[in-house]
């Protein structure tokens, strides 16, 4: 029963971790972190990501332009670039380490302690990837809310709003966190289910030269 639950927890954790890692990679690449609709020209929709700004027109044409200098970007975009790249690397590393520690993986079958450490290391890396994803997405969303409700900006000025990548990044962080938690819980159950080492036993007494052992009677009569 415990082994079945452990296998299901590991499979679910790996599935969530991989889904979160893929979603995090998509969030890093797509230019949909912010969106802007112009009241004067409703045929154009501006979108912004970590790497470029795009303009989508009504006829279906999309024109994208990369950001200028890295140092010229706002602080939240600069930090978000670094953290999202770090999250992608940690997610991949965690998935590889956790895969090597799964019960169905044939490597290191005779070393359960090593497999448990690999599983815990993978869970920790996936959890760190979740934090590295949620932090920049939430920071950009927070600044977007502040700019949207800034009273010092005239109402006629267009305001940036949340893009689809913001919500995708939150889902990616949640998937990574849930996957890392499941993997860590399954690793703890592996430790609890490991049987204790057998007790040492004394080796049998050595046999005689002929292979047979003739016991001497304790109360034998003496022959004179």
TrEMBL record:
One of its GO terms (molecular function) is structural molecule activity. Its main location: other. Residues 195-206 have a biased composition (Pro residues). Keywords: Cell junction, Cell membrane, Membrane, Tight junction, Transmembrane, Transmembrane helix. The chain crosses the membrane at residues 12-33, 79-98, 118-142, 162-184. It is a multi-pass membrane protein. InterPro entries: Claudin, Claudin_CS, PMP22/EMP/MP20/Claudin. One of its GO terms (cellular component) is bicellular tight junction. Residues 195-224 are annotated as: Disordered. It is found in: Cell junction, Tight junction; Cell membrane. Pfam families: PMP22_Claudin. Claudins function as major constituents of the tight junction complexes that regulate the permeability of epithelia. PANTHER family: CLAUDIN. Belongs to the claudin family. This is Claudin. It comes from Otus sunia.
């Amino acid at each position: 029963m415990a082994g079945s639950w452990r296998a299901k927890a590991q499979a679910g954790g790996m599935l969530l971790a991989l889904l979160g890692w893929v979603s995090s990679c998509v969030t890093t690449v797509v230019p949909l972190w912010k969106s802007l609709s112009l009241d004067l020209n409703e045929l154009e929709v501006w979108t912004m990501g970590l790497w470029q700004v795009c303009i989508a027109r009504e006829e279906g044409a999309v024109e994208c332009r990369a950001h200028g200098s890295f140092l010229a970007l706002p602080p939240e975009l600069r930090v978000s670039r670094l953290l999202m790249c770090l999250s992608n690397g940690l997610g991949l590393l965690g998935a590889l380490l956790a895969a090597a520690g799964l019960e169905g993986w044939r490597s290191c079958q005779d070393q359960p302690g090593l497999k448990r450490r690999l599983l815990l290391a993978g869970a920790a890396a996936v959890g760190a990837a979740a934090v590295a994803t949620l932090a920049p997405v939430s920071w950009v969303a927070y600044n977007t809310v502040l700019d949207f409700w800034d009273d010092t900006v005239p109402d006629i000025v267009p305001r940036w709003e949340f893009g689809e990548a913001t919500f995708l990044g939150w889902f990616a962080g949640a998937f990574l966190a849930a996957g890392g938690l499941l993997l860590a819980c399954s690793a703890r159950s592996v430790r609890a289910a490991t049987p204790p080492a057998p007790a040492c036993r004394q080796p049998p007494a050595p046999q005689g030269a002929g292979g047979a052992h003739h016991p001497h009677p304790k109360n034998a009569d003496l022959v004179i």
